[in-house]
């Protein structure tokens, strides 16, 4: 079973290794989707949504919201942001009945990157 929690944050970045429009400083309202895969426990839950919210807010959203992402992640493409987020939360979301399955980072409603467990193996 898959369990998802959606977050948003606002941040600025520029792509210094890219030559085009996104080379200039600009911002996005990012959408972050964190997906866990697992089996419900005796309480009927894979993990409490509040636990996901607390962990991801502390480890990711509070660091990236209203930030200049280049100071945290070099060349902050959607792909690199997804990889960084995975590194920040994967070990904390590992349980006997579940683990992190996917991280989606959306810069706009049309443009995003998805990083899955198989990409990290």
What can you see in these coordinates?
Strands 3-1-2-4-5 form a 5-stranded mixed beta sheet. The protein has 121 residues and is an alpha+beta fold. A hairpin with a 5-residue loop joins strand 4 and strand 5 (112-116). The chain contains 3 helices and 5 strands. The protein has one domain: Tetrahydropterin Synthase, Chain A, CATH 3.30.479.10.
The number of helical elements comes to 3
Average of pLDDT = 97
Query: What is the domain tally?
Result: 1
- Rg value: 15 Å
CATH architecture: 2-Layer Sandwich
Q: Into which percent range does the helicity of residues fall?
A: 25-40%
Spatial separation of the terminal alpha carbons: 20 Å
Structural class: alpha+beta
Strand proportion: 25-35%
Task: Report the principal-axis shape.
Answer: elongated
Oligomer state of the chains in this structure? single chain
Instruction: Count every beta strand, where a strand is a DSSP E run of 2 or more residues.
Output: 5
Largest sheet, spatial ordering of strands? 3-1-2-4-5
CATH superfamily: 6-pyruvoyl tetrahydropterin synthase/QueD
What about the largest sheet? 5 strands, mixed
Question: What is the CATH class?
Answer: Alpha Beta
What are the salient characteristics of this protein?
elongated, alpha+beta, 5 strands, 3 helices, Tetrahydropterin Synthase, Chain A, 121 residues
Blueprint (SSEs and pairs):
Layout: E1 2-13, E2 26-38, H1 49-64, E3 67-68, H2 78-89, E4 98-106, E5 112-116, H3 117-120
Parallel strand pairs: 1-3
Antiparallel strand pairs: 1-2, 2-4, 4-5
């Amino acid at each position: 079973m898959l369990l998802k929690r959606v977050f948003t944050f606002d941040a600025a970045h520029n792509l210094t290794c890219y030559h085009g429009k996104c080379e200039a400083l600009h911002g996005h309202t990012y959408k972050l989707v964190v997906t866990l895969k697992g089996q419900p426990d005796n309480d009927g839950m894979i993990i409490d949504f509040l636990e996901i919210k607390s962990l991801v807010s502390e480890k990711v959203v509070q660091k990236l919201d209203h930030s200049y992402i280049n100071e945290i992640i070099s060349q902050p493409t959607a792909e690199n942001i997804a990889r960084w987020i995975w590194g920040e939360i994967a070990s904390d979301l590992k349980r006997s009945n579940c683990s992190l399955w996917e991280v989606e980072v959306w810069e706009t409603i049309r443009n995003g990157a998805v990083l899955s467990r198989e990409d990290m193996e």
